[in-house]
Amino acid sequence: MSNSTIRFLKLYNYIGWLNICNHGNRTRNFPKAFITSIDSKKSHHQAELSLRRGLHSSVSSLASESRGSKLVLGIETSCDETGAAVVDEEGKVLGEGLYSQKRIHVKNGGVIPTLAQDLHRQHIDSVVQQALRNAGIQLKDVSALATTTMPGLALCLQVGLQYSKDLLRRLPLPFIPVHHMIAHALTIRMIEKIEFPYLVLLVSGGHCLLAVARGVDDFLLLGSTLDNAPGEAFDKVARRLKLHLHPACHGLSGGQAIERLSLGGNIRLLMDKERPLLKHRDCSFSFSGLKTFANWLIYNHEVKEGISREDDLLLSTIPDIAASFQHKVAHHMVTRVARAMEFCRQRDMLAGTSKSLVVSGGVASNAYIRSALQFVCDKHGYQLHCPPPRLCTDNGIMIAWAGMEKFKLGLGIVEDLQSVRYEPKYPIGMDISDQVRAADIKIKRVKFW
Ligand code: KG4
Ligand code: ZN
Q1: Per the confidence metrics, is the pTM higher than 0.90?
Q2: Ligand 1 closest atom vs CA 235
Q3: How far apart are CA 449 and CA 352, in angstroms?
């Protein structure tokens, strides 16, 4: 191994990676947590390369490196990923199993809960067994089990919880129910040692919220979406643009497809029109107006080009529409984040730490949105921290790590297994969005392009 590779590995605290494809299941092994941040696009690429070079790291050596450490097995089934992983106290990932249903749901134009439930049922056991096998351990070596029990699709949460209960009946272990959004918010702490409190923006297919993370179990909600989540809006606009038929978008989620096709597009189409919640001086979000506006624009362009919604012809202006929509979504997020930063400044809510904005959830893997957020962070003296894209989308690692964070503090360990229920809706913490609204903070128009 060259000196530069060794230096890189030290820098990224990373020694290897396995990516085994097996019957459509992705199995990953992140032997050590890795460091990444917004301005490390190049580093992401280097990390990826080094990870691939590290294939020689044997599973048994990984397990032995964590000898003496507590291990948490995490299970995720809240939406359309069946995930499981084993992590140690340092945030080292010993083994992972992940089955993504995304391709199937993209074909159907959205997640069908009953189908998602069937797919979780079919794959959950093999995903868990893969995580254990890759970690080189058996279930009896695990110190605790952590499972997503809230929020999410009822039928999907049910599969993960039932599987966990069955497993715990065979082998009693401490059990830690995990809040899916809190897990997204904590993932960064397995990669970088970020101290509480910090500001967190969670943007996914089912959620959009801004919160102050004050502790592993202590969140203040500043605002959330009043209608669609941004990922949902991306998915619907992508569907309306028929991107599932586009040869460059095969197997991509709507958001990924829009990001890919927006490259080189002109953002001016939706420029001054449609600025969601302009008069609401709070941290709420709204994406349904942008979605409707994009649909109206698509319709107009179809009429101009003589294309019908039903046929399989694609618009020539897809890049412009995609870029404009993505830009408006980013702009809306940036205005709400800027207000949250000002609110935290006025209340001195992030005192004692260097100010950090953590962004996670599937939509956080969008590079354009990340760079817009970097702009607002630079302006307000914040550091922007985003997990690498593969940890922004749903996975078992984030659940295992959230479980480990609680386990280390002795928080949220269930005494009575029978009493545990799944909760399709569950708040992330104390809702102080009224206080944000009452503060009536005016934000200057943010221009990041
Ligand atoms: O966090 P996630 O995997 O699942 C939950 O919704 O919890 O997020 C999936 C969502 C999808 O709506 C997808 O379109 C969106 O994240 N997404 C993106 C990108 N990658 C995934 N949206 C915009 N740009 C992306 N690059
Ligand atoms: Zn998620």
Answers
A1: no
A2: 14
A3: 32
Per-residue pLDDT of the chain (449 residues; tens, 9 = 90+): 333 333 222 222 222 222 222 223 333 333 333 322 323 333 343 333 333 333 223 344 456 666 688 999 999 999 999 999 999 999 999 999 999 987 787 777 778 999 999 999 999 999 999 999 999 999 999 999 999 999 999 999 999 999 999 999 999 999 999 999 999 999 999 999 899 999 999 999 888 999 999 999 999 999 999 999 999 999 999 999 999 999 999 888 899 999 999 998 988 776 566 788 888 899 999 999 999 999 999 999 999 999 999 999 999 999 999 999 999 999 999 999 999 999 999 999 998 778 999 999 999 999 999 999 999 999 999 999 999 989 998 999 999 999 999 999 999 999 899 999 999 999 999 999 999 999 999 988 777 76
Is 36 in contact with 392 (CB distance < 8 Å)? no
Q: How far is the CA of 362 from the centre of ligand 1 (A)?
A: 3
CA of 310 to the centre of ligand 2 (A): 32
Q: Any idea which ligand is nearest the CA of 105? A: 1
Please name which of 287, 148, 326 lies closest in space to residue 207, comparing C-alpha atoms: 287
Structure tokens, 316: 């020539």
Q: Which two tokens stand for residue 177?
A: 């129910």
In this structure, which residue's CA is closest to atom 14 in ligand 1? 255
Which atom of ligand 1 is nearest to 365's Cα?
26
CA 92/CA 168 separation, integer angstroms: 24
